[in-house]
Design a protein that fits this description.
single chain; alpha/beta; 7-stranded parallel beta sheet
Length: about 230
């Protein structure tokens, strides 16, 4: 099994935060840093560092359990658009993706170009992924806008986007508790840790980089260091 860990499964948002990227964002350079600066300025322009973001954009528990995968071949990267290179190194395995998004199809642009929103769907179609499970974090249960809030609703959306022969190899689940459902390390062949800075708070970058060090993750595309950039 391959284990993909998107940091946005832990670096999240609270309910009714309408400028949160979970409502929808692109993945451009300004979305990764300047958009977060603007969110911080709107909340408290005088707050030090990124502390103005703390109330609305918490780091949810459960990420601590990821340290159990230390010693397994690990890669760290900026965005899931880089996942194709990782999949090609370990083709034909099951993939468990811990994520706030299903990453099975993009609704705009070139559907054949690998992007954060479609890498898994393209991997299934190409035979790089045997079976795919998206495991949503438990905090989605309290966030109606999140994909993991109503799995039936999200499944209907996915079913409208994928052909039957691909859909039959897809599973959507949500953690019951923080970190629940993470696989036994003995079952994991390789780990991909993804920063996704357009979706994750810069306030949580130090923890993210600390986790990458614990996993001894080899950079694919170097993540963005934003801890001192507010």
């Amino acid at each position: 099994m391959l284990l993909s860990l998107d940091w946005d499964a832990f670096s999240g948002t609270r309910e009714l935060v309408f400028d949160a990227p979970i409502w929808g964002t692109r993945d451009r350079e300004p979305d990764r840093l300047e958009a977060w600066r603007e969110r911080a300025r709107k909340r408290d322009p005088g707050a030090p560092g990124w502390t103005a973001l703390d109330a609305d954009f918490p780091l949810y528990p459960g990420w601590e359990g990821l340290e159990r995968y230390a010693g397994i071949p690990a890669t760290v990267t900026l965005t899931h658009a880089d996942a194709w290179t990782w999949l090609e190194a370990f083709p034909g395995q099951d993939v468990l993706n811990v994520d706030s998004h299903y990453d099975l199809a993009s609704l705009s642009g070139d559907a054949g170009r690998v992007r954060p929103g479609n890498w898994a769907g393209l991997g299934l179609r190409a035979g790089l992924i045997r079976r795919y499970t998206c495991l949503y974090p438990d905090w989605h249960a309290g966030l109606p806008v999140a994909e993991g809030f109503d799995l039936a609703r999200t499944w209907d959306e996915v079913a409208s986007l994928l052909p039957p022969e691909v859909l039959e190899r897809v599973t959507l689940r949500r953690m019951d508790d923080p970190g629940a459902g993470l696989p036994d390390p003995a079952r994991v062949t390789a780990v991909l840790l993804v920063q996704s800075p357009a979706w994750t708070s810069p306030a949580h970058d130090p923890v993210f980089f600390g986790l990458a060090r614990t996993l001894r993750a080899v950079p694919l595309t170097p993540p963005l260091s934003r801890s001192g950039s507010a």
